[in-house]
Specification:
With about 150 residues, this protein is an all-alpha fold. The chain has one domain. It has six helices and no strands. Helix 3 runs antiparallel to helix 4, helix 3 runs parallel beside helix 6 and helix 5 runs antiparallel to helix 6. It is flat and about 65 Å long. The N and C termini lie far apart (about 75 Å).
């Protein structure tokens, strides 16, 4: 097969598919920017509030719980109150809060606690984080909805 024949057999994306890909570029860009901001904030918190060896990882715990509470309020605002620009949700929800919260560090913290001879602390952390995070997102969304209905005339 010659080069021109091989080139003619190459599958090219349709103009609609190329246009759809281009439409995703701003979304990917704002998620990346938001993720960098959120991860930087989380890192700063861990520098300010370091975990002692064998101690409960309070910085990561608080980060995840607060991040979940903020996402609860944010989702109520952008779904019930404010018709946000199409890039707000990926920037703040996926990017900033996705970079800020860190369930990967949560699992590493559990492994470090278990490996360093603190399995009880690791188990407490293992159980407390998802319970507190789910409670935070639920309570924050309920509270946000109540505040919004209370403020309506």
């Amino acid at each position: 097969m010659t080069a021109p024949e091989a080139e003619s057999l190459r599958v090219r994306p349709s103009p609609a598919r190329r246009s759809a890909r281009r439409a995703q570029v701003p979304v990917v860009a704002v998620v990346a920017l938001g993720g960098a901001l959120g991860a930087t904030a989380r890192y700063a918190l861990t520098l300010w509030w370091p975990t002692q060896p064998g101690g409960f990882p309070w910085a990561t715990f608080v980060t995840n719980v607060v991040g979940c509470a903020v996402i609860g309020v944010f989702m109520v605002i952008i779904t019930d109150v404010w018709a946000a620009h199409r890039l707000v949700r990926p920037f703040f929800g996926t990017g900033v809060l996705g970079g800020y919260t860190t369930f990967s560090t949560y699992t590493v913290d559990i492994q470090k606690l278990a490996d360093s001879g603190h399995p009880a602390t690791g188990l407490a952390y293992l159980a407390a984080t998802p319970v507190a995070a789910l409670a935070a997102v639920w309570l924050a969304s309920v509270a946000a909805r109540r505040v919004l209905t209370w403020r309506q005339p």
